[in-house]
Design goal:
Number of domains: 3
Strand content: 25-35%
Number of helices: 15
CATH class of the largest domain: Alpha Beta
Radius of gyration: 24 Å
Helix content: 25-40%
CATH topology of the largest domain: Dihydrodipicolinate Reductase, domain 2
Distance between the termini: 48 Å
CATH architecture of the largest domain: 2-Layer Sandwich
Length: 438
């Protein structure tokens, strides 16, 4: 059988990892794919660097579209990032009848609907395992391994930079700004870390998993996104005293009224496996009605882990290239999603969660009674409470309350009323909590 000829767009971190793993394991990969997979042309701005990485054995150009339109290429692997030029080259590749493999989560989350529609009309494959959680095969698990299940919820640590920062804040008691500087020095965080620390990167990935899990179209503008920049080390410490860890989670749930789709710092019981995922590692928990909760753990980024996922997609293309569209795994797992496509995404005010509240209050009788009355009037019940002793000479103390599950709009109303009390100093800190056990 003829080899699968690949055009590689970008040979940076992921492209370099893809090339290295494919070269090192070519015999094993060929046996699994049933045919040889070979990179025959590379587009890279730094042509000299690309030639050095490949020992001059592969044709290199700085013209992306010359790869996309090359009639000898079967599959275009898009690893340039972004969602403007990347969108143009992917749509051009599809127009040329070429299969596409991409690691670009932003591209899929923002333009996936258009890309999949174009691919369907041309009968080509678009594969994107590497777009979510690096080397963890979570897309394949959702699209194939769990097809017997009605997915109930998905929750994941899907950004290694923020998980590294939160781990350091917990273990060393450092402030966010101090740990961010260390993360940048070590190469875990970019010079401009906004996409990571504000939760945008995680939101891209969550949108993709939600679309696969629930059969809804991409609608990234509806993902509630809250980062970790305002998180204080004392809240991480208080959470641990109460038996919880704080993680930036992407959470999507099926409810009676619609789909919850949110990224934010979250308290998780420390006994949960996912609560003990530390450093730059990723993990995703998927709850299916038949299988129960399942955990997927591994490296969420890096050259070879992500390259491994790219190659897994290339193997799928090699196996399924000549299959009819009906025989292939659907782009978003559903052959017909008409019954779920109009399922609404719930605004954050309508989601249900338990809550961690921290307030700075005057240390005098009656304050707690006022606070608990406000909560009780809104049908919010208290699960646990902790009051810290005032420091020498201080007249105020930190009060921490954990609540049972309530609707967010009720909690917003309660917070507004509590902050209006004369005995409360400043704004409350509110963090959401998830048990992740059922």
């Amino acid at each position: 059988m003829n080899s699968l000829k690949v055009g590689l767009l970008g040979i940076g971190t992921v492209g370099g990892g893809t090339y290295t793993v494919l070269k090192r394991n070519h015999e094993e990969i060929s046996l699994r794919a049933g045919r040889k997979i070979e990179i025959v042309k590379i587009a890279e701005r730094n042509v000299q660097r690309a030639k050095e990485l490949t020992d001059g054995q592969i044709e290199v150009t700085n013209d992306l579209f010359s790869v996309v339109t090359d009639p000898n290429i079967d599959v275009v692997v898009e690893l340039i990032g972004g969602y403007t030029l990347a969108k143009d080259v992917v749509l051009k590749a599809i127009e040329q009848g070429k299969h596409v493999v991409t690691a670009n989560k932003a591209l899929i989350a923002l333009h996936g609907n258009e890309i999949f529609e174009a691919a369907k009309s041309k009968g080509v494959i678009v594969a994107y395992e590497a777009a979510v959680a690096g080397g963890i095969p979570i897309i394949k698990a959702l699209r194939e391994g769990l097809v017997a299940n009605k997915i109930e919820w998905i929750a994941g640590i899907i950004n290694g930079t923020t998980n590294f920062i939160l781990t350091e804040m917990r273990e060393k008691g450092l402030a966010f700004a101090d740990v961010l500087g260390e993360a940048q020095r070590l190469g875990y965080a970019e010079a401009d870390p906004t996409f990571d620390v504000e939760g945008i990167d995680a939101a891209h990935k969550l949108m993709i998993m939600s679309a696969i899990g629930f059969g809804i179209p991409m609608q990234f503008d509806k993902v509630y996104t809250e980062g970790i920049t305002k998180l204080e080390s004392k809240d991480i410490r208080y959470a641990e005293e109460l038996g919880y860890r704080v993680k930036l989670l992407g959470i999507t749930k099926r409810s009676l009224n619609g789909i919850e789709l949110r990224v934010h710092p979250t308290l998780i019981p420390e006994k949960r496996l996912i609560a003990n995922v530390n450093g730059a590692m990723n993990a995703v928990v998927v709850k299916g009605d038949a299988v129960g909760p399942t955990l997927y753990y591994g490296a969420g980024a890096g050259a070879e882990p992500t390259g491994s996922a790219v190659i897994a997609d290339l193997v799928d293309v090699a196996r399924m290239q000549n299959a009819s569209v009906e025989q292939r795994v659907p782009y978003l797992a559903y052959h017909d999603s008409t019954s779920t496509a109009t399922t609404p995404i719930l605004p954050i005010d309508e989601i249900s969660s338990a809550y961690y509240l921290r307030m700075r209050a005057l240390d005098k009788p009656g304050v707690l009674a006022e606070v608990t009355k406000i909560l009780g009037d809104r049908q919010i019940s208290i699960d646990a409470m902790m009051q810290k002793e005032p420091q020498d000479g201080e007249t105020e103390a930190d009060i921490v309350i954990l609540t049972h599950i309530t609707v967010e709009k009720n909690m917003n109303s309660a917070i507004q009323a509590i902050e209006a009390l004369q005995a409360i100093d400043g704004k409350l800190v509110r963090l959401r909590m998830e048990e992740l056990n059922k």
